[in-house]
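// run 5 | inverse folding | seed 20
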């Protein structure tokens, strides 16, 4: 990283990350540092429902919450902490704080008032640029669930969307039915 500005942002990110209270998320998205307070109960209920449905339909996959990913498409040194990561079990056995997204099959985000815009824009672009096959966006403000797929040239080329309380089919590599009636 030869860019002095990027180095400066990275150093600030490291300092803020170290000082953040337990449960707070510090992310670097498109060159901006975002600090997010712990999620509320409704948010966590949705994440729990998502992880349960993946577990019930694809037992051999790992479901990770609070796992850091290096997503350079989100910034020069993008560092994000998705609400949900689905990958083969054992994909993240190292001691790293932020992991290579190569084994990731799906990243899921559940919007909050403080995170909605970065979930809909910066993270969407970053996950596509990193080649994450599926990006699931549960948009509480809009009452919709979207699955973005088929990343190509830094963007997703396919989108399926449904309103809460409906079923949404997540394509390969997951190929599961997501019941959103609990959202």
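// decoded
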């Amino acid at each position: 990283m030869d860019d002095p500005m990027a180095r400066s942002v990275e150093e600030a990110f490291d300092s803020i990350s170290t000082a953040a209270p337990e449960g707070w998320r510090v992310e670097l998205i498109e060159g901006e540092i975002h600090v997010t307070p712990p999620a509320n109960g409704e948010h966590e209920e949705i994440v729990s429902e998502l992880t349960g449905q993946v577990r019930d339909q694809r037992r051999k996959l790992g479901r990770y919450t609070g796992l850091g990913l290096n997503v350079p498409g989100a910034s020069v040194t993008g560092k994000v902490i998705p609400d949900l990561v689905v990958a083969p079990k054992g994909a993240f056995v190292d001691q790293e704080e932020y992991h290579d997204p190569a084994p990731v099959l799906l990243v899921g985000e559940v919007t909050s008032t403080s995170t909605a815009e970065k979930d809909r824009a910066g993270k969407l672009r970053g996950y596509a640029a990193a080649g994450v096959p599926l990006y699931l966006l549960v948009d509480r403000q809009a009452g919709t669930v979207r699955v973005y797929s088929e990343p190509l040239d830094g963007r997703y080329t396919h989108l399926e969307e449904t309103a809460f309380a409906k079923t949404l089919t997540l394509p390969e590599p997951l190929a599961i039915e997501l019941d959103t009636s609990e959202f």
